[in-house]
Amino acid sequence: MKKEEVSGFIIACLSEPDNAAKQQQLQDWLLEDETHPAILEEYRQLWQATAQLPENDFDMATGWENLQQATVSRQSPLKTAYRRYWWKAAAVLLPVILMTAWWNHHRQQGEMVTYIAQGSLKDSLHLPDGSKVFLRPGTVLRYNKAFESRTVELQSGEAFFEVVKNEQQRFTVTVFHAAVEVLGTSFNIKTSTEYTDVAVWDGKVRLSADNSRQGVILTPATMGKVDAYTGQVEKLAGAFEYRCGWANNDVSFSNQSLGTVLNTLSSIYQVRLRTADTTLLQENITVRFKNITLNEALAVIREMLDLKVDQVSSAEYILKKMK
Questions:
Q1: Using CA atoms, how far apart are residues 164 and 108, in angstroms rounded to an integer?
Q2: Domain parsing of the chain, residue ranges
């Protein structure tokens, strides 16, 4: 066998360990010269290195420098003439190593994760950057596994985000007709085929249509809305921190109608709350429920408005004026 054919021969044998014919040829070659086992071992070490590559970025310059240092420091008993085999092995296998590292890195960059929320009331998810998301059942999120751009796509449903602050990179939530950009904050976003609305608990966000640079700035308790058909973005009047309560168990109403309060509590506790007299729904109250049960919340409303609460089934309550 010619010296220039040795590299290809060894690589072919290492790549097909189950090929009996090639393995026999390899054994015959090892017996031809006392230096051949050492040459094979050098190739085998490089070959095994390709299976131990990390999935993060591979630094080509550093890798080549390490390879050079390894060949200089290694005290090999090989004859000077056979040192060329080591460099031939490096020349053949280093591109394999680099291509494998590149493929692993870009595979991870392109790999998407789709998460569908489970549970009866809400689900939660930790994103790769440490941010936390609470999701209504059935809500669908999608994001890149590498998460280098800190972008999440809300495909459907409703989610509350607690975003880890990063001054160097914004956090973005996109839907098919709107986008929300933040540095570090907590906010609720709900999307449908007709509109997307965003309510801020703390911090500041910018709501725009289809990643447009124009939009509205939202601060705590404010809410913005994007029309899916016209792309119009508007900032709504009023206090909307209660829209976040289903996720953080802190439901705050500031001069809201009883109708809004009951609808919100019905959604959170999965019950039906109604009044015997519909005029009661127009009465405004200011109240905050933090980490309390439905019965405790109803007791507070009852005392505030002098009402009677009748439970007509396991999941239905009627509020009436006291006689």
A1: 22
A2: 3-109, 112-241, 249-321
* The amino acid at 254: S
C-alpha of 305 from chain center: 44
Tens-place pLDDT, residues 200-249:
999 999 999 976 667 899 999 999 999 999 999 999 999 999 999 999 99
Radius of gyration of the chain (CA): 32
Indicate the fold that domain 112-241 takes in CATH.
Answer: Jelly Rolls (2.60.120)
Q: Are strands 112-116 and 195-202 parallel, antiparallel or unpaired?
A: unpaired
One CATH from 3.30.70.1350, 3.40.50.300, 1.10.10.10, 3.55.50.30 for 249-321? 3.55.50.30
Cα-Cα-Cα-Cα dihedral sign, residues 36, 42, 47, 48: positive
Residues in contact with 213: Cβ distance below 8 Å, sequence separation at least 6, in sequence order: none
pTM flag (> 0.70): no
Give the Cα separation of 103 and 94 in Å (integer). Answer: 14
* DSSP E strand stretches across 56-163: 112-116, 123-126, 132-135, 140-144, 151-162
